[in-house]
Amino acid sequence: MMKAVDNHSSPSQIFRASMQLAAEKKIQKIKTVVITEIILAVIPKSERLDRLKYLEKHSQIIRAIQEIKNCSIWEMLRLITLAVLGIVFCLIIYILIKIKTREENFIKKKLLSALPEEWQADLQALQKRWMKKKYSSFKIRKLTIKYICDMYFAAMKIKIENFYFFNRSSKKEID
Amino acid sequence: MSDNKKKQIKLSALDEDVLTVLLGRELYGLEILDQLNLDRPDELMFSSLYPALNRLEKKGFVSWKWGDEHDSSGGARRKYYKVNGSGAAALSEIQQYRAALAQRSAQSYTASVGI
Q: What predicted TM-score, i.e. pTM, was given to this entire model?
């Protein structure tokens, strides 16, 4: 590229060469950077201003500007694509969390339904209390699981006591 | 003495506490637990309360009825417990026994010290 352009090359030649390079590399940003650098490197300092003024008038410069504009559009499109992909990714994670929470709730409901109604009422009253205290949902979930386990332990104790001390079917008593 | 001993075996400390809390009022599980935990150094959990209530119910010391309140969220009903006549009598007996026991030990202590 640099070999093809020397000090005597005209601006149009320089531009064509730079465009060729950009087309080869297919990187829009490099196009403008290379064009500017080549123009500044090739043209002597004393002539730069005049040449640039000349180039400004030249139609090829307008095309170059259009190229730059296109480049920014592509850049924006790339960013939009990335943003869309990001949103899709977040949505997938959100859906997965929702499914997991639903599964957890389902398990909790199943576990709760096996307990006596008055015990469920006690747990609901406790949950309301925690909500009033503005506990985080994570803490409420943790405490709920803890109390469900405690209630299952109570149910087990009742079954054993009923079996040993009252000699009755514990299942009937708990239900 | 042997009769008192029988009563002592019948009611555990927790059973006695529950009966004391329920005496003269109707409370549901969580309220009983709150009342018991008010001045308790170690927190009492449902795993202790429910078996105690079950024991008292089996012995016929407490009775229960379903709560009238209807939860807007369609929640479960509460079970309100209250002390029966036999429960109150058992509690009174065990309290008398403890009072007598305390009095006797105080008397023996006074005699041994020689006051």
A: 0.59
Among residues A132, A136, A133, A137, the alpha carbon closest in space to that of A108 is found at A137
Element housing B66 (H / E): strand B62-66
Find, among A40, A70, A71, A69, the residue nearest to A55 by Cα.
A40
Half-sphere exposure of A20 (CA within 13 A, CB side): 11
Alpha-carbon dihedral angle through residues B79, B80, B81, B82, given to the nearest 10 degrees:
-160
Please state, in angstroms and rounded to a whole number, the distance separating the CA atoms of residues B30 and B50.
10
Model-level ipTM above the cut of 0.95: no
DSSP B34: H
Decide if A118 and B58 are in contact by the 8 Å CB cutoff: no
Interface of A with B in 78-137 (CB under 8 A): 117-122, 124-126
Q: What share of chain A is helix, strand, coil (3-state, %, to 5)?
A: 85, 0, 15
